[in-house]
Design goal:
37% strand; single chain; three-stranded mixed sheet; 142 residues; three-stranded antiparallel sheet; GMP Synthetase, Chain A, domain 3; elongated; alpha+beta; 6 strands
């Protein structure tokens, strides 16, 4: 895996992934930024969320469950002093579909957390990560 980050100006940086996608990162005004992009630590949290959401949907689909949606809400706390690593992260999954059983969704979340999501397993070395979920019955199929 490769990536490149290039300083644009002030506190703006352009990240370019090896797969050919770009994302703008920027800092807050008090740090010389213009608030025109995601903060790097927010990007890290978003990456973890994308990783575990991908896992949960993939696991449910592989099990032939009728999953229609998966949305995560995440809250993170950081250390007061430098380095300001994540110390606590809570991930709340809202999974929708037809006939989804709570036990099946719970197992998908656990498999992601314990075996598949490289990002959350790595961040779990410094942060306490907790998980919760809701299952919502959907009127439409996947």
């Amino acid at each position: 895996m490769k990536a490149r980050v290039r300083w644009v100006e002030k506190a703006k940086f352009l990240g370019e992934s090896g797969s050919g996608h770009s994302v703008l990162m920027d800092g807050p005004p008090e740090a010389g930024g213009e608030n025109l992009g995601v903060r790097p630590m927010e990007m890290l949290l978003l990456g973890m969320g994308g990783c575990t959401a991908f896992d949960v949907v993939h696991i449910l689909k592989k099990g032939r469950h009728d999953v229609a949606g998966c949305e995560l809400e995440m809250e993170a706390e950081r250390a007061d002093g430098d380095p300001k690593v994540f110390t606590r992260i809570n991930i709340h999954y809202r999974v929708s579909g037809r006939g989804l059983k709570e036990a099946v969704v719970q197992r998908a979340v656990e498999l992601s957390a314990e075996k598949y999501c490289s990002a959350s397993i790595m961040l779990g070395k410094t942060a306490e990560i907790t998980h919760s979920f809701d299952v919502v019955e959907s009127g439409q199929g996947a």
